[in-house]
Design a protein that fits this description.
The protein has about 500 residues and is of the alpha+beta class. It folds into 3 domains: about 160 residues, Outer membrane efflux proteins (OEP) (Up-down Bundle), CATH 1.20.1600; about 120 residues, no CATH class; about 170 residues, Outer membrane efflux proteins (OEP) (Up-down Bundle). Helix content is about 60%, strand content about 20%. Strands 2, 3, 4, 5, 7, 8 and 9 form a 7-stranded antiparallel beta sheet that branches. Strands 1-6 form a two-stranded parallel ribbon. It has a two-stranded antiparallel sheet with strand order 10-11. The longest helix has about 70 residues. It is elongated.
């Protein structure tokens, strides 16, 4: 009776699992089939790090555009449409009060042009003014009203110092390049992470398939031992062990399904999908060994790795800081030139009847005498900062070459491991089939058969994991060397490639 109930319960459980798998398979047909490329596109749109990198590029680009706009001619009006003042003061020399009143209007038109190559500035300025002044002193009232116009051209040129405008523009260009490199690096890191999440889902999917195969094999074994027990050819203990193995397989199948669902949720969260959106992945992990030239990988990595370019940018910025440090308490000067003409008359029509020319020339020097070692210390600090960045660059180069070498060796090892795993799976499959026949003939216990089944399941997963590891390591080499050996092309974006070649 117990055996009958156990058989009925087993039949119901197996039927439930079959129905569940059938429904899951049928539902999968209606699900979205997602490729790795589609997952990458979704992740790029939703990744906070990518969005922040894009915004940083926008900030750097607009800052550069704004600064370059200031190097062009600037046109400006300054207007004071009305000014009035009334004053009363005491003249101590004559012991009398002076009352004054002023009404005026003025306007300035200014054209200013910075000079990039010299950091000088040319300015054209025209000032037009109308005034109406009156003053009362000792009962005598004086009035003055009229128009004036002053037009002059001036030039100011710093001397014996560095070109501040040119340095600032260069620093902003380097900031834009650095932001662009950071964006490209974020995309590479994102691609690596998306691949890892994607293939984790694939691994869990393979584990579920292996668990399904294992359950089918256990069901076959159970049917065999059940027939033998009912025919009196095997002990009842064998049937109990087979039932235990079958229950374990069912539990393994359920665990595999849970792991797959969890992996899918992690994948959805990372790329920015809705947790309720269903999908199935589509991937080809068939093994095809990709020939890799280690010397080419190292050379291309050293020539094009964006982290190295960022270290070079850090060195250039440190060199600029050294230039600034050298100007601390420096001997410097400034030359000012001005040529102008001024007209003034009560009658606007006669404004330039008697013009006044007013040329000006001025030279100023700043001559430091003693700064208590400030300049010397700042220079030493800046030189030390440059040395630090140079050390960072050399260390980064060593790290790049080391990572490429290790990834190359890992690829070679994985290629060998895949062949071993493939042969091991074949051997495990053949061993299981042989021992299943022995089990049919009564020469093997169900516990022994379960061990061979577990061995087969393990070898299948070993092969799947080796294939996925090879795919991920090949991607890692592409990121490390910035060379796509599968397509034999450079992996550096073309706009970045042009920038690197221009330096």
């Amino acid at each position: 009776m117990d055996s009958m109930n156990t058989g009925i319960n087993r039949s119901i459980s197996v039927l439930q699992i079959i129905m569940l798998l059938s429904l899951t398979t049928g539902f999968a047909h209606a699900q979205k089939i997602m490729t790795l490329e589609e997952a990458m596109d979704i992740a790029i749109k939703n990744s906070p790090e990518i969005l922040k990198s894009e915004l940083n590029m926008t900030i750097s680009k607009e800052n550069l555009n704004a600064r370059e706009a200031t190097t062009k001619s600037r046109f400006e009006f300054q207007i004071n449409p009305f000014f009035y003042s009334h004053s009363r003061s005491f003249d101590s020399n004559y012991s009398n009060w002076i009352t004054g009143e002023e009404i005026s209007s003025s306007g300035d038109f200014i054209v200013s042009q910075p000079i990039k190559f010299s950091d000088g500035r040319i300015t054209l300025r025209n000032t037009f003014n109308y005034h109406d002044n009156s003053s009362e002193y000792s009962g005598i009232t004086n009035e003055s009203k009229g128009f004036s116009n002053f037009t002059f051209l001036s030039y100011s040129q710093p001397i014996f110092t560095y070109n501040k405008l040119k340095m600032e523009l260069n620093q902003l260009r380097l900031a834009l390049e650095n932001a662009t490199l950071s964006y490209a690096l974020q995309r590479l890191y994102l691609e690596r992470a998306v691949n890892q999440y994607f293939y984790t889902v694939y691994q869990r999917k393979m584990a579920l398939a292996v668990a399904q195969d294992e359950l089918k094999n256990q069901e076959t074994g159970y049917d065999i031992i059940k027939s033998k027990v009912e025919g009196g050819l095997s002990a009842r203990e064998e049937l109990l062990q087979a039932e235990l193995n079958l229950s374990t397989s069912k539990s393994n199948l359920q665990n595999a399904q849970v792991n797959l669902d969890n992996a899918k949720d992690d994948f959805r969260q990372y790329i920015g999908m809705s947790l309720s959106e269903e999908f199935e992945i589509e991937s080809n992990v068939e093994f095809a060994e990709v020939p890799v030239d280690l010397d080419k990988a190292i050379q291309n990595g050293l020539d094009t790795r964006m982290e190295l370019r960022q270290r070079e940018i850090d060195i250039k910025n440190s060199q600029d800081q050294l230039t600034v440090a050298k100007t601390t308490n420096e001997f410097a000067g400034n030359i000012d030139l001005q040529i102008g003409i001024k007209g003034e008359d009560p009658d606007l029509a006669n404004l330039y009847d008697k013009p006044t020319r007013s040329p000006q020339v001025g030279i100023q020097f700043s001559i430091p005498i003693w700064d208590w070692g400030e300049r010397k210390s700042r220079i030493k600090a800046a030189e030390a900062a440059i040395r630090i960045e140079e050390i960072n660059l050399e260390a980064e180069k060593t790290t790049v070459e080391l990572d490429i070498r290790q990834t190359f060796r890992s690829l070679q090892n994985l290629s060998m491991q895949i062949e071993i795993a493939r042969q091991s799976e074949k051997n495990a499959q053949l061993t299981y089939e042989i021992n299943l026949e022995r089990y049919r003939n009564g020469d093997l216990t169900s516990m022994d058969l379960g061990r061979y089944q577990n061995q087969l399941s393990g070898k299948k997963m070993d092969l799947a994991n080796s294939l996925i590891s090879y795919k991920l390591e090949l991607l890692n080499l592409k990121i490390q060397s910035l060379w796509d050996f599968e397509n034999n092309t450079s992996f550096v974006p073309m706009d970045l490639q042009d920038n690197l070649n221009e330096e």
